[in-house]
Amino acid sequence: MHQYVTVTIDGAKVKARKGTSVLDTALRYAICIPHLCHLPNLSEIGACRLCIVEHVQNGRTKVTTSCTLLAQEGMVILANSDRIRKLRRNIAELLVTQAPNSRAIQDMAVRCGVTEARYPFRQDDCILCGRCVRACKESYQAHAIGFVGRGKERHVNYVFGERPEECVMCRACVTLCPMTVTPCDGPMKPGEEYLCGKCQSVTQAPQYQVGDCVRCDLGQGFDCARHHQ
Amino acid sequence: MPKITSTQNLEVLHERLRAERDDGALLMTICGGPGCQATNCQDVVTEVKKELGSNGLNGKVRLRVTGCHGFCEQGPIMVIDPSNIFYHHVGPEDVSEILNRTVRDGETIDRLLYTDPATNKKVVTEADVPFYQAQSPTLLSQNRWVDPLSIEDYIAIGGYGGLAKVLSGMTPEAVIEEIEASGLRGRGGGGFPTARKWAACRAARGEEKYVICNADEGDPGAFMDRGVLEGNPHAVLEGMIIGAYAIGCEKGYIYVRNEYPIAVDHANEAIRQAREYGFLGKDILGSGMTFDIEVARGGGAFVCGESTALMASLEGKVGEPRPKDIHTVEEGLWNKPTTLNNVETWANVPSIINRGAEWFAGMGTDNSKGTKILALTGQVKNTGLVEVAFGTSIRTVVDEIGGGGRDGRTIKAVQTGGPSGGCLPAALFDLPVDFDVLWEKGSMIGSGGLVVMDEKTCMVDVARYFLKFLQDESCGKCVPCRIGVDRLLEIVTDIVEGRGRPEQIELLKELGETVAQTALCGLGKTAPNPALSTLRYFPEEYEAHVSEHRCPAGVCTALIEYSIDSAACNGCGACLKSCPYGAIQGEKNTLHAIDPHLCTKCGICPTTCNENAIIVQ
After folding, report:
1. Which residue of A25, B353, B532, B561 is 20 to 30 Å from B516, comparing CA positions?
2. What is the interface pTM, i.e. ipTM, of the complex?
3. What is the pLDDT of residues B446-471, one digit of tens each?
4. Is it true that the peptide bond before B172 is cis, omega within 30 degrees of 0?
5. Virtual CA dihedral for B391, B394, B398, B404, nearest 10 degrees?
6. How many CB pairs under 8 A join A and B?
């Protein structure tokens, strides 16, 4: 028998299986919380910070990632407050200016309301979401790739820089990488990056309400967890 | 030494050791802290040992090399008791004179006495040194009486008495209540009430629990924990044993950075001695309690000072923080309930138990009790470790203890709490040293670093310096800290290099606030503080850089020009000779001129000019 708890997300009282995260609960009830480093059945690292929500407790609110926050009885969550939307937009702006050459990230920026890029574009590509590392380690038990270095130097590589025999070239890491789908107009050249923004119509459609999951195409690029349900 | 098996035996030993030390012999104390070691106090110690042997004074003089006394600026420091004579800047060449004149004949040597800069009078005794007078030493003062390598010294000043008191009748709950009543808050930066942490860990489910001492002090310009762990390691051990009793655990770790080799050695030696005397191990003081401590050395990552990253590092994993939605008191080291406290927090515990919670709560402000050790550095006359009661104003620390600005310059700001703290302007110097007050003003006590900056410091450049440090030390796990701090640095670098645009100031603020709210760990959340606090208190400096392309303090090389004041230059040629780039032209006794195309603004020429004729603006 599963135990259930009641959680309030954006005013809606929903039942959540005990031990599941607030993000999974919200997605189950079609409340859209943008996310990137989260993948079903992988451990949560809370790295991309896009799925932040406000957790209201004793009259105080605390900003935390919903993927690492476990649903508990009586919890009150604000997933789409003005404060959260602004913070999320700023994070998405950081991501898209760092890696504009990805449809997934361009989509995400649109979904989070980024309309201008206030930082110079870079083409760093990998945004260290760690999907590949975790899938290799947890789903395939291969431990072939990992994070190397610290801070700006941090990158994904084979252990000791050489392909170990545990790597059987299954390409799971490639399929899960948000960088593998180029923007609709094709790859951007260095110095010519721009915010694509073509999908803005999705978030501006009359039936669209902030926080609603409309099973948008935006999610396909980055493998939105909602598409797995 | 046989094991001490009961609290009575400890009392007997304490009495005996105290009596041994009260035999009327002269006590010569030499500070062996890191500051004094840097000025070669070891040579003085070697010389004293040699001279004592050849002078026939062995037995009449007891030599004690201790941990840091705090007054690092004046090292090497020597104090001769019982007359409390204070000598500074002692060199090996002074030793035989000290032994002959001061020790044998009781005279003081004027040359080695400290001069009070305010009155220009020589100060004879340590108690009269103004640097010490405004302090409330309770923890740091123990350093003065203890050889860190001698457990007997520590027992002689009442050491392990707190542990004996706890084991001879206090319940764990009573210990936590006592700490609660004292109002002790974590000294590592967060200021979380210690008793609440202990109680939560005690209540947490699980048989195995751990206590950890965080000695991974990484802030630039901070060395409080080093001073305590090197100078008085047994106080830390005793605090941890008491904590372990209150929480109910059998294993503790001291996580100390490898860059502190003396602290590592002293902690290891203290643990060895404590095991030998029966304060660690099985059946401690006959109470049946089992507890042991191990030293773990950190690899020098700033982020490992964060509790969850530290625990990951202890487990042998990469030192990265994890989300704290489940607290470490429930799932910490190896997913077991873990209490982590800072060196200074642990070291405060024995005194609280010994002297009572009321004594401790009697010092400080409403919400911040006790004393805090601060590492005073930067552009002040007296740098070193100072211990003040909470509630003491910053002005007292900077002006009275620190002696004011160097070379008569005006002090502009202090950076409190290390790189993730903030800058407070001189107008706010009447604020008390207090966890909550400083937090409200956009800064924090942090672990206790206090960097003083004078009028020749550019606040935008300071923000750039600290952001660079934080960007280098970011673990890179979460986006706001890795990319956000990098972008903050990019903007601030644009501003100091003269490419700043007015809208960037607003962006800096917005991005700073975003990082502060969304980063994964405490270090990331406080990383924008250098930018945010300088922006809050010194907006005019940012404006000057951006709108007028001018650096008011004359620091940012892209925005300044060197020129020669034609009225003041006497043509002496000093600057001309000093310039490594040949940028200064002129003949002897004629007016010199600087060629702006060759000048690299290295800053050498102003230091050579006696007429102050080099203008930087």
Report:
1. A25
2. 0.92
3. 888 899 999 889 999 999 999 999 99
4. no
5. -120
6. 87
